[in-house]
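seq as requested:
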Amino acid sequence: MTDGVTPASSAPGYLPGTDMPRFIRDMMEFVGMTDADVSAIRRSAPIVLGHEGALTSALYDHFVKFPRSAVFFLGADGEVDKVRIERRKHSLGRWLRETAEIALTSEFSYYVLSVALAHGHREQPPGAIPQHLVVGAMSLTQSALATIFAAELGAEEAAAASVAWNKLLLVQLSVFMLAYVPPRRVL
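struct tokens:
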């Protein structure tokens, strides 16, 4: 991207959590995010947001089908806690809206880190959400978006939107992984 930022390859190392805007810029550069990708995300954002309710419902419906992910949404009685699910859908919707805005601000970068830490450092039972489930959830999101784009956009624009969103979601996934691994200096 051409934002005047010093390329990662020529800047000294740092700890990602201490400079999240830089980490996100570095990851965007690493995954090949271009200005055209940002434009594709912005053009497709209204479509994504138009499906926010269906996307969040589909993801949580999927999570409760599997014991290893359903455990995070069960009440004391062992049944799915519908109130908790609705709160989680609301939070997921916020994340989707924030992501769709692709506001590459310092506040947004630390917001993503706070979401990551909320998943990776849960004190209350059943504890942290395993990282493989976070990766799986991101894959489900990518697939759902590709399906929406294929249904609502022309082939070329659907492909551009899918590629761009995949890059952005992988940048966010890299932030999520920071909650699961010990801090290491990024070179």
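The first helix runs from residue 20 to 30.
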